[in-house]
Automatic annotation (TrEMBL):
<keyword id="KW-0486">Methionine biosynthesis</keyword>
<dbReference type="Pfam" id="PF03447">
    <property type="entry name" value="NAD_binding_3"/>
</dbReference>
<dbReference type="GO" id="GO:0004412">
    <property type="term" value="F:homoserine dehydrogenase activity"/>
</dbReference>
<keyword id="KW-0791">Threonine biosynthesis</keyword>
<dbReference type="Pfam" id="PF00742">
    <property type="entry name" value="Homoserine_dh"/>
</dbReference>
<comment type="pathway">
    <text>Amino-acid biosynthesis; L-methionine biosynthesis via de novo pathway; L-homoserine from L-aspartate: step 3/3.</text>
</comment>
<dbReference type="GO" id="GO:0009088">
    <property type="term" value="P:threonine biosynthetic process"/>
</dbReference>
<dbReference type="InterPro" id="IPR036291">
    <property type="entry name" value="NAD(P)-bd_dom_sf"/>
</dbReference>
<feature type="domain" description="Aspartate/homoserine dehydrogenase NAD-binding">
    <location>
        <begin position="10"/>
        <end position="128"/>
    </location>
</feature>
<comment type="similarity">
    <text>Belongs to the homoserine dehydrogenase family.</text>
</comment>
<dbReference type="InterPro" id="IPR019811">
    <property type="entry name" value="HDH_CS"/>
</dbReference>
<dbReference type="InterPro" id="IPR005106">
    <property type="entry name" value="Asp/hSer_DH_NAD-bd"/>
</dbReference>
<keyword id="KW-0560">Oxidoreductase</keyword>
<feature type="domain" description="Homoserine dehydrogenase catalytic">
    <location>
        <begin position="136"/>
        <end position="314"/>
    </location>
</feature>
<keyword id="KW-0521">NADP</keyword>
<dbReference type="InterPro" id="IPR001342">
    <property type="entry name" value="HDH_cat"/>
</dbReference>
<dbReference type="GO" id="GO:0050661">
    <property type="term" value="F:NADP binding"/>
</dbReference>
């Protein structure tokens, strides 16, 4: 029987998950493709490490040996970092292979170049697994929301930071304790900077903005605030107001300009992201025809990620290449002048004319924490907060929810 020949680059959590899935779902794949799927090569860094790989499969640390495999059809990349993945995927495309990657860092930096390369060599580049793991986010945009004009996405794209925020809120831990718990459970890496400083979410947001609007923003132009050292008191403050603090990656299209941000925001109980806790990811998507929909599910892990990759793999043979770029969109300037609602937490609110909608005083241990719900532009609020190290500001993702308690005025 004729076969589809596949090489895996990387055999860690994701690579091994794909390897196992291709074997466990071989019958289903054959039924869908009419061909056997054969893993003919695996590229790793250390070829002497013991691995559960059939003896007839080539295991090597030399990419040239993978590229020499005759009639190789598809290369699936699951290595970490921009290089060597970038070079390897270009070489694979040069030899006529379709490529699938889970590597968000690579796509966030080199997605445009890889897309152009794929066009030049008439091969496909697919990357469902790179954004929100097992959630079919990319496929939903490319295949199910082709006509909808997407005006807003608010998303939880990093399971580690969502787990930490949920753990602090549910178990009254401080940030360090919740991070240690995430590391113990295997949700956070030994070096968690990419997750808690928001880089990982930023990479994924950039992939989405490229897919939807053809925009790969310059990093420094994007608001990008992590959750490092977020105070337990602020999370309790949000709870007292009937809200939660979530690390939200968002894209909003206003008058042809796309505004991108990654930051901790307060969400009320009516907001679709309010109930998304633990390691889950979710995307609240607003399209002009469909209205608002919520996609929610596992954002990482061996099988959810393999699920995304294997669906991409089958689509290579069953669907035409899809693009979803709204052409007439530009990147919005760095700070917004649009009026929004915020919760400010601090000791004293300077009298600078910002309209105060509500004042709160919430007990925390033996003291009371002061806060204000205010209306202001991002430019005004960021400037106010940057001038006062004791003041923190959280944008409210508005859904019309009402404050639960207002302790004193
Ligand atoms: N883990 C997830 O849940 C998840 C979800 C979505 C996307 N992703 C993305 O998928 C990619 C892989 O993640 P992972 O969690 O599977 O990583 P991982 O467990 O650290 O595995 C990385 C694999 O790449 C191999 N490798 C590293 N450097 C290499 C090099 N220079 N040449 C050849 N092979 C090399 C390693 O080889 P050795 O085995 O010899 O060390 C290992 O097999 C990353 O880009 C990640 O962002 C991961």
């Amino acid at each position: 029987m004729d076969s589809v020949k596949v090489a895996l680059l990387g055999f860690g959590t994701v690579g091994e998950g794909v390897y196992d899935t291709i074997h466990s779902h071989q019958k289903r794949l054959q039924a869908l493709l009419g061909k056997k799927v054969e893993i003919v090569g695996v590229l790793v860094r250390d070829q002497n490490k013991k691995r559960k790989i059939h003896s007839e499969t080539l295991v090597t640390s030399n990419m040239d040996r993978i590229l020499e495999i005759p009639d190789l059809d598809v290369v699936i990349e699951a290595i970490v970092g921009i290089e060597p993945g970038y070079t390897y995927l270009k070489k694979a495309m040069e030899t006529g292979c379709h490529v699938i990657t889970a590597n968000k860092e690579l796509l966030a930096h080199k997605g445009k170049e890889l897309r152009e390369y794929a066009e030049q060599y008439s091969v496909r580049l697919e990357f469902e697994a790179a954004v929100a793991g097992g959630i079919p986010a990319i496929g939903t945009f490319k295949q199910l929301l082709k006509v909808n004009r997407i005006s807003k996405i608010e998303a939880i794209l990093n399971g580690t930071s969502n787990y930490i925020l949920s753990d602090i809120a549910s178990n009254q831990k401080n940030f360090d304790q919740a991070l240690a718990s995430a590391q113990e459970k295997g949700y956070a890496e030994a070096n968690p900077d990419n997750d808690i400083d928001g880089w990982d979410a930023l990479f994924k947001l950039t992939i989405l903005s490229d897919l939807l609007y053809g925009i790969q923003p310059e990093w420094e132009k994007m608001v990008h605030i992590g959750i490092r050292n977020l105070a337990l008191e602020h999370i309790e403050f949000a709870q007292a107001l009937g809200m939660k603090i979530k690390h939200v990656a968002s894209i909003e299209l206003i008058e042809g300009e796309a505004r991108l941000s990654v930051e901790p925001v307060m969400v009320g109980q009516d907001h679709p992201l309010y109930g998304v806790d633990g390691v889950n990811n979710a995307l609240a998507i607003t399209g002009d025809l469909v209205g608002q929909i919520l996609l929610q599910g596992p954002g990482a892990g061996a099988l959810p990620t393999a699920s995304a990759i294997i669906e991409d793999f089958v689509n290579l043979f069953q669907t035409e290449a899809q693009t979803k770029v709204q052409q007439d969109v530009t990147l919005a300037p760095s700070l917004s002048d649009e009026m929004q609602e915020w919760v400010l937490i601090g000791s004293d609110l300077p009298s600078n004319g910002i309209p105060i909608l509500n004042k709160y005083s919430v007990p925390a241990g033996n003291t009371m924490i002061q806060g204000w719900r205010v209306a202001g532009s991002e430019r005004e609020i960021r400037s106010l907060v940057s001038g006062d190290p004791k003041m923190k500001g959280y944008r409210i993702a508005l859904t019309g929810q009402k404050d639960k308690i207002l302790v004193s005025h």
